[in-house]
Amino acid sequence: MWIENREVLVNGKLEKRYCFVERYKSTLTGKYRKVSVTYGKKTPQVVKAATQELERKINKALAEESEFVQTATLSQVSTAFLEQYQKRVQPSTYKNGALFIKKFVDDFGHDTIISNISQRSLNRYFNDMLYNNERDLTNGTVRAIKNKVSVLFDFAVTYGYLKDNNIKKVKIEWKNENARKRNQIENKYLTQDEYRKIIDDCLINGADHYADVFKLQYLTGMRFGEASGLRVQDVIKENGKTYLDINHSLVFLSSPSRYYLSDSTKTFAGMRKIILSPEATKIVERHMRNKDLDALLFAYNPSAPHFADQKPLNINNANTMLKRIIERQKIDKDVTTHYFRHTHVSVLADMDVPLRVIKDRIGHADTNITEKIYMHVTKKARQDFEAKIAQIDNFL
């Protein structure tokens, strides 16, 4: 306890008061809070009385916190968690995580006391996601939701809302998805014919800027945000070759709608320098002309020379346009901008480029799907070879 001297105005006169202050550690936040009481004197008797009153205030505050912890609702805990989560992850990661958390809270009920959620109800919830005909989600989607909810429950344990994380005890009867996975890999990238149809459709419908950014994705394996965020100064010329310094990404946010260039790529592994093919170099050089160093290569108004005047390409608009294109072109795949990245992997695999080199070129974050596409393409190449080898007898 300490004493702070203060002066207060009483009947037009300044009088001295003594503020007795004590601090305590909150069981909710782990941070220190203060309580205080003010007297007109600081005699031994007053000091004793102040000490007792401060102790009562602290005990009352801690009791209220304890009661709150025991009755904390999903809505209260998730709000506190998301506020902290948003500060430590990339915007795109937060967006997906918040979506899963809010869905979980909606399903269980905002006013549900988090400590009352049983392991049994959690088991039923996640298994229902897999086998309920109305949901029928994939193993991957359910696993992603479960992981995010588990992070929420870890937060609840850390701050005393829960004693244990029951999510970690959940046992899920996963689906047998072998057949679906085989088909899924083939549907994760484009054939040359499908790629050409999409580019031609863009050009025919006056979306040249999208045609060029999709081409560059196809030729480099970049994410859309990395490609749409490229600036003139990110193009490097060395020894007659052209490289891209990929060190940030264009990020769009909503509520309110805004965008900015991030300080880094989506993942640390995404920070990289890649060489361009002659065709990719032509695309880049064409979009560099008459622009400031900090201007974007791609924009809805391609001739704008200054960043402040440019209208950046929005990934949501790009994906909406792709959806219309695949309907027009009758392409039976749920194509998004990420498909050009996957297609780049398939092309390099077909060229016998080593897997580790491909991973370095595209940034390691997509390791799982990258490896699956690589193995699928190389396996298909071996099967084609085995089917053709018998024809060698015709040359005897």
From TrEMBL:
UniProt xrefs under Pfam families: Phage_int_SAM_3, Phage_integrase
InterPro entries: CB (IPR044068), DNA_brk_join_enz (IPR011010), Integrase-like_cat_sf (IPR013762), Integrase_catalytic (IPR002104), Integrase_recombinase_N (IPR010998), Integrase_SAM-like_N (IPR004107), Tyrosine_recombinase_XerCD (IPR050090)
Domain Tyr recombinase: from-to ranges: 185-390
Keywords: DNA integration, DNA recombination, DNA-binding
CDD domains linked: INT_ICEBs1_C_like
UniProt-recorded Gene Ontology molecular function terms: DNA binding
Coiled coil (UniProt feature): none
GO terms of biological process kind: DNA integration; DNA recombination
Domain Core-binding (CB): 72-157
Keyword Acetylation in annotation: no
PROSITE patterns found in the cross-reference section: CB, TYR_RECOMBINASE
UniProt key word Membrane: no
Family stated for the protein in its record: Belongs to the 'phage' integrase family.
Protein name: Site-specific recombinase, phage integrase family
Organism: Ligilactobacillus ruminis ATCC 25644
